[in-house]
Amino acid sequence: AQSVSQHNHHVILSEAASLELGCNYSYGGTVNLFWYVQYPGQHLQLLLKYFSGDPLVKGIKGFEAEFIKSKFSFNLRKPSVQWSDTAEYFCAVSVIQGAQKLVFGQGTRLTINP
Amino acid sequence: EADIYQTPRYLVIGTGKKITLECSQTMGHDKMYWYQQDPGMELHLIHYSYGVNSTEKGDLSSESTVSRIRTEHFPLTLESARPSHTSQYLCASSEYRQGGSIQYFGAGTRLSVL
Fold first, then answer.
1. Which tens digit of pLDDT belongs to each residue from B26-66?
2. Which of A10, A43, A57, A60 to mutate to test the interface with B (most CBs of B within 10 A)?
3. Where are the beta strands (DSSP E) in chain A?
4. Sign of the four-CA dihedral A17, A86, A56, A28
5. How far is the alpha carbon of A28 from chain B, nearest alpha carbon, in Å?
C-alpha cells in the first residue's frame, strides 16, 4: 500500500520569505501527485497536480512543485509567501488504476506572520 | 470546479442516535468518496463508489455505511453513534481531466458525539 510523508507539521514564516514543504511517497508504480490546500474554515482545494510530462508543475497563487521520481518526492515551493497563504497543506498520491483513491499525508500547517 | 454539498456542517448528538450525513454533487461525476479526518491528522478513505449501486470499503475501517441509489447522492449513515465517531467527514467526487482523475471536496461535516 502506498503512503505519504510530509516532513514538516508546522511551519512559521514571515511574509516575503521563501517556502518549501517536503513530501515523499512510497509506491513503486506510476502515481498521480497532488497538493491540496485548506484555508481556515474552508473546504479542501486543489493547489496543483502532476499527471505526466514536465516534472515542474505550476499551480494557483504562485505555487509550484517538482516531481523527482528517483527521490519519490513532490515538494511544494513558493518564492515569496503572503499572509493569505496561512493554511493547512496536504500532499496526496493516487494510483492511476481502479478507483484512483487518494492517500494523504498528515498535512503541514503553515502560519505566515505579517 | 465541481460543487459538492454536505449537510449538516456541524452536528452534535448523543450516543446511540442514528445519523445520516448528506452529500450531493451536481456535476454528474460517477466516482464519489468519503474521508474521515481527525484534527491535525491526514484524511483517511472510509468509503467510495464507482457509480450507482456500487459501494466499496476504503482503507480505514469504519462502522458507517453508505448507499448510492442516485448518481448525485452519496449519504453516509451511522446506525448508533458513539464518541469514537467524533471526527470530520469529508465527501468528494472526481472527474477525469487532462490525463488524470481530480477529486473535488465538500466543506465537510464536523460530528461530535457526546
1. 999 999 999 999 987 889 999 999 999 999 998 888 899 99
2. A43
3. 3-6, 10-14, 19-21, 23-26, 31-38, 45-50, 56-58, 64-68, 73-78, 87-95, 102-104, 108-113
4. positive
5. 18
pLDDT in tens, B66-96: 999 999 999 999 999 999 999 999 999 999 8
Adjacent-strand bridge partners of B38: none
CB B50 within 8 A of CB B80: no
Q: Which residues of B touch A46 (CB under 8 A)?
A: 102-104
> Residue A112 corresponds to which cell in the numbers above?
505566515
The bridge status of strand A87-95 relative to strand A108-113 is antiparallel
Residue A12 β-bridge partners: A111
CB contact under 8 A, A107 and B41: yes
For residue range A20-58, list pLDDT tens digits in order: 999 999 987 888 999 999 998 888 999 999 999 999 999
Which cell numbers hold the place of B62?
A: 469504519
Interface contact A4, partner B, CB < 8 A = yes
